[in-house]
Amino acid sequence: MSSPNVLNYVTTNRFYVEMESQLAAAFSECSGLDVQIEKDVYQEGGVNEQQRIFLKHAKFGDLTLKRGITNDPAFWKWISQSLTADDLRRRNINILVFNQAGETIQAWRLVGVVPVGWKTPALKADSSAIALEELILSYEGLTVVHRSDEVRVKGGGASGDAKRLSRGAQGYFSN
């Protein structure tokens, strides 16, 4: 029996977008999963060897997914909704990485995601797949989920957290 902390490497990375508990797209490159926490630094009088750090708000970068493929009409509809004033365009989604056995080895849950840019490659008559060269997503929150946590999917379908969002009375999305 192997240890739960044994690294399980993926030889060819594929990043999958899970939306509404379904795998909606696959991409070969993912960047921009980053958080920068603003801080205030104070020097305390008489304490010359230390400083006090007070954390403030988190800022999230835009996520860029490259060289992707999908044939999910709901995924395309979601992307096209970013051109309208429809409130249904913000979603929670999961970005998943699988190992060769089809088990999720890493997941990132993005909250309040909205597409802000995309490009398609040259369209070819001999290809039946619908591709995305680049998809840029802005998000309002990020949670890292380890495979030992609640997301334990084999080939897709997680806990249902990737659903449409509604703002609460204070105007915030739930996570």
In short:
With 175 residues, the chain is mostly beta strands. 5% of the residues lie in helices and 45% in strands. The protein starts with 14 loop residues before the first strand and ends in a 29-residue tail after the last strand.
Structure description:
With 175 residues, this protein is mostly beta strands. It has one domain (15-146): Roll (Pnp Oxidase, Chain A), CATH 2.30.110. Helices cover 5% and strands 45% of the residues. It has 1 helix and 9 strands. It has one helix spanning 73-81, and strands at residues 15-19, 22-31, 35-42, 52-60, 63-70, 91-98, 104-119, 130-138, 141-146. Strands 1-2-5-8-7-6 form a 6-stranded antiparallel β-barrel. Strands 3-4 form a two-stranded antiparallel sheet. The relative contact order is 0.23. Mean pLDDT is 77; it is low at 150-167.
Highlighted features:
175 residues, mainly beta, Pnp Oxidase, Chain A, six-stranded antiparallel β-barrel, two-stranded antiparallel ribbon, 1 helix, 9 strands, elongated
CATH fold call:
Pnp Oxidase, Chain A
Helical stretch tally: 1
CATH-scheme architecture: Roll
Overall geometric form: elongated
Number of strand segments: 9
Q: Estimate the mean pLDDT confidence.
A: 77
CATH class: Mainly Beta
Spatial strand order of the main sheet:
1-2-5-8-7-6
H and E order? EEEEEHEEEE
Quaternary organisation of the protein chains: single chain
Share of β-strand residues: over 45%
Q: What is the CA–CA distance across the termini?
A: 35 Å
Low-pLDDT windows of residues: 150-167
Please give the largest β-sheet. Answer: 6 strands, antiparallel, barrel
Estimate nothing, just give the exact number of structural domains. 1
